[in-house]
Amino acid sequence: AQKITQTQPGMFVQEKEAVTLDCTYDTSDPSYGLFWYKQPSSGEMIFLIYQGSYDQQNATEGRYSLNFQKARKSANLVISASQLGDSAMYFCAIKIWGSTLGRLYFGRGTQLTVWP
Amino acid sequence: DTEVTQTPKHLVMGMTNKKSLKCEQHMGHRAMYWYKQKAKKPPELMFVYSYEKLSINESVPSRFSPECPNSSLLNLHLHALQPEDSALYLCASSQELEPRDTQYFGPGTRLTVL
Q1: Handedness of CA B58, B43, B48, B75 (dihedral sign)
Q2: Residue B97 and residue A106: Cβ atoms within 8 Å?
Q3: Of A44, A46, A102, the CB nearest to B98
């Protein structure tokens, strides 16, 4: 069963605007961690931000923040002040405490295009 | 420093060739991973090593043979590959296999099998 759903195959945003990339997840385990990665066309997967299920506050890292709504099982990534270099594929992933050996389950990704 | 290096960046090989992919990290991480990624798809886990021992093999065909000679190095030996094995191969490492441990990825090797 798919554990991570990213419903937006593609998103477009104008430079300097904010954009939200959606991610919903499915687990009955109360203990888990959510990760967002960025993958430019060069191929490298770049870690952006982490949110633990017991974290009291929404995670933030520079221009990246997580809109974490535990009851809705969503962990949307917000990118503020978009830059041309933000154009990339973005993957949401979950790691479930009870799962085997820290396995990461990825969503299908959202292709973000930032235009001038 | 969260750097994972991979060599080569690109590899073209015939179906009868034997080649190896190399991955290296100097972050003191004890868990290392191989992923395969096809275009426009998420990465698929192939192998996980923890403390130089194979922890997970995701039913990968035997033409892929992983090796972890020490805690900093991870190899993937390739033999008798098929054209459908053409993909981006990503290596990753994490502190250990704990749920909070972030996986850091290398830049990948783009493999083409002719």
Answers
A1: positive
A2: no
A3: A102
